[in-house]
Amino acid sequence: MPKSGQARVLTAEQQDHVFDVIQHHRHPEKNTAIMQISFKLGLRAQEIALLKVKEVAKLNATGTDFKLLEVMSLPAAYTKGADAMGRSKTTYHRKTVSFDVASFDQVIRQVEKLAKAGAQVEPKDFYPPVRQHKGRSRDLPMVDKALRSALKDYIQLRLDKDGFVKPSSPLFITQKGGAYSPNTLQEHMKLILQDWSGVEKASSHSGRRTLITNVIHKQKKSVKVAQKIAGHVNPSTTLIYEEPPEGVIKDALENL
After folding, report:
1. What is the mean pLDDT of each run of 10 residues along the chain (256 residues)?
2. What is the pLDDT of residue 221?
3. Residue ranges of the domains in the chain?
4. Which CATH class, in words, describes the domain spanning 12-88+137-200?
5. pTM score, two decimals?
6. Cα(142)–Cα(51) distance, rounded to whole angstroms?
7. Which long-range contacts (CB under 8 A, 24 or more apart) does 156-159 make?
8. How far is the C-alpha of 133 from the C-alpha of 75, rounded, in Å?
9. What is the C-alpha separation between 72 and 41, in angstroms, rounded?
10. Rounded distance, CA 149 to CA 32, Å?
11. How many CB atoms lie within 10 A of CB 236?
12. Which of 191, 199, 225, 198 is closest to 211 using CA atoms?
């Protein structure tokens, strides 16, 4: 089972069930493509929401036909912490602050001086600056057959419906025709996994965590490989995402 607060890692059977259930709801082509990208490339919901058509397909001059790319080049601006075109901004509510000893001593001396002078002291004035996360670009080969099939079906559907698409058009659009916001897509993916498919504790991060777990446990690849796929700066972050599959844990408890 996943640790408290972490998205559930799905078994192969659960993944098959998710994709089967999608076929019985509206917009199966779009939802299949979204979830294939999540489970086969490990993109965050924010990254999926920000994808453009040109990241997965090369269109002809008139935008009426396409060829699927072999590699998805994910721009740095799409990744966690980056403000991609203003659509991924979130309000940051600070919960903790950290100081090294020297900085803490300096803050205390400053507070003492202000207090002696009778000045008003506002705690937030002494908070250290928030570290800004820089986006990291990454190239992800689109080699999985189910992934490629889902993307081809969905893009072809878009062309059949609209006649043409622009390279800069959002890859995934809502029923109103606009791009998904990261939060809206997170809730939509959670709906597919929990409400439609009945997978408890699953979220938009489940595909990402499932992929990282499978790369390390089933494929026996190094953490470095998983880190590269996930786009993590620090390998310790990758290990937080990874966890033994439920089947492994169950076997261990049954064979004590």
Report:
1. 67 96 97 97 92 96 95 83 51 72 85 82 78 69 95 97 93 92 95 97 92 76 66 65 60 63
2. 61
3. 12-88+137-200, 93-129
4. mainly alpha
5. 0.74
6. 14
7. 157/29, 157/30, 159/64, 159/65, 159/66
8. 14
9. 9
10. 10
11. 10
12. 225
- Please write the tens of the pLDDT for every residue from 167-192: 999 999 998 889 999 999 999 999 99
Contacts of 43 (CB under 8 A, 6+ apart): 37, 51, 74, 208
Question: Can you say whether the dihedral through the CA atoms of 240, 238, 49, 149 is positive or negative?
Answer: negative
Token pair for residue 86?
Answer: 């203003």
β-strand partners of 196: none
| Integer Cα distance of 124 and 106 in angstroms | 15
**Based on the number of CB atoms within 10 Å of its own CB, is 102 exposed (0-12), middle (13-18) or buried (19 or more)?**
exposed
